Amino acid sequence: MLQETNNNSLIQLIYFSTATRDFSDHELDELLEVARIRNEKLGVTGMLIYAEGTFMQVLEGEYSDVHYVYSSILKDPRNKDNIELSEKVISERTFSDWNMHFTRISAREFSSVLSPSKGSKFYNRSLVENLASFI
Ligand SMILES: Cc1cc2nc3c(=O)[nH]c(=O)nc-3n(C[C@H](O)[C@H](O)[C@H](O)COP(=O)(O)O)c2cc1C
User: Fold this and answer.
1) Quick check: pTM over 0.85?
2) Cα–Cα distance, 120 to 101 (Å, whole number)
3) Which atom of ligand 1 is nearest to the CA of 79?
4) Which of 14, 18, 29, 31 maximizes ligand 1 atoms within 8 Å of its Cβ, making it the mutation to test the pocket?
């Protein structure tokens, strides 16, 4: 648990995971349909990226809601090897729209966001800022 956090604290959690199979557009649509309904009910916002077999997602909302969603993602057999990149208390959301944004990017773009090289447009910017630039 984050320090100085209670269940109502607004937090932002970013993770990536490995897809257990290759996802068609249709399968991703199905996943998003369920996710968006539940996220809207809970007030969870963010974005989901699919990069040739890797998911990366930003989840924003109250601590208990974000962790409720994330715990079902951790159990979801469609992904594995989840790695939490960051979890922090935020004062305002980067993604205020309830709709979970979705985009596909290339594996090359994915690695340049995760470990930007000097001189690249992603260098010296926050991860969430770089991710938001894809939508
Ligand atoms: C990569 C990935 C991201 C997901 N993102 C969300 C999400 O943002 N919100 C959500 O409710 N479910 C999301 N899901 C689906 C949940 O894991 C779960 O299947 C769904 O919410 C139904 O949960 P339940 O079976 O516990 O009722 C995601 C699944 C995967 C594989």
Assistant:
1) yes
2) 24
3) 31
4) 31
